[in-house]
Amino acid sequence: MATLKSILEKVKIRGDILLGKVYGYTDKFDDLKEVLLSNTFTVVPSLRYGISQKNNADIQLVIDALQVAYENELIDSFCIVSGDSDYVPLVGRLKSMGKFVLGISRSEAASNIFINACNEFQFLESVGKRNVEKARSKQKSSYTNEEMADESELNKLLTTVLEERTDRGEMYASELKGTLLRLRPDFNEKAYGCATFYKLLTKLANRFGDLKVQNDNYNVMVSLANTSDSSEEAIPQLTRDNWREAFAAQIKAYKEGGFDRVNPSILKADIITAYPDFNERAIGFKRFSDVMKQLEKDGLLVVEMDEQNTMLIKLL
Question: How many Å apart are CA 272 and CA 119, to the nearest integer?
Fold first, then answer.
């Protein structure tokens, strides 16, 4: 369920979901029913007969997508949650009609052909933010644990929205609130003890330091705070003594997120996010593949090669 919510969140940051369809739904996905219904998704029935069940769903998805593209001018973007290269012709036709195509898939199942065909592609591991939390400096606070958890979650969500809008770097507070309401329709700043959204943003900026709020008496602009010059928190470093623990923690985070295999590039990207100065030579290796081989010897993962001769790591 957490993975589905992450996908929906990624899409809602970009705009309203006008139409959503699910293919291949069975009773084993019953725990997703509430999330699907609350986001107005419909389930496309598929008769199960013989060995062509997947092909039936694939063909129905293509037919439905093209029908929507031709008949509904309001829809200008499509999100296909799959990495199957069978959908490349569909992606090509949608793009030829001026539609934007976003693809999302697990790294282990993503075809390079499908990845390159999409206007944009996101690995599910990245969408789900399955990375280890950065440590924050400890400070005294009068907040209760429940208040801290609620505001921390909201701060993370706002940070995610701003990270997705890297083309502009900043947003009007009114636009940010509109996006937030798409993601959390029941949002109300008064629930956080603030009379206005501006006061809530200021409160979060002062408390967590991730947001930068500017008010010129006419417009309120919100952007990500530049923490590169901050001296309050030292940039974490990986050394020959602590690198195993850092990688083990990241692998544990993937497993807790429901992932069995990931692409090594995803692991490296998340390590760099937590440790910006990461370098293989600093921990005694020439290449990242050498790091993977050592982790395999340590019993944390197994290095595999898929049909496209792409390296994958199986998490143990």
Answer: 25
Q: Are 61 and 23 in contact (CB under 8 A)?
A: yes
Number of C-beta neighbours around residue 195 at 10 A? 9
Query: d(Cα 192, Cα 183) in Å, to the nearest integer?
Result: 17
Q: Which pLDDT score is estimated for 147?
A: 53
Tell me the CATH number of domain 243-315, given options 3.40.50, 3.30.390, 3.30.2010, 3.30.420. Answer: 3.30.420
Q: Across the chain, how many H-helices and E-strands are there?
A: 12, 11
d(CA 160, CA 13): 9
**229 pLDDT higher than 50:** no
Question: What residues does each domain of the chain span?
Answer: 2-127, 145-224, 243-315
Provide the whole-model pTM: 0.74
Q: In sequence order, which residues have a C-beta less than 8 Å from that of residue 166 and are 6 or more positions away?
A: none
May I ask the CATH class of domain 145-224?
Answer: mainly alpha
Distance CA 192, CA 150 (A): 8
Strand ordering across the sheet containing 220-224: 170-172, 220-224, 211-215
Would the pLDDT of 141 be above 70?
no
Distances (CA, A) of 209 to 47, 177, 200, 220, 235: 53, 19, 13, 17, 15
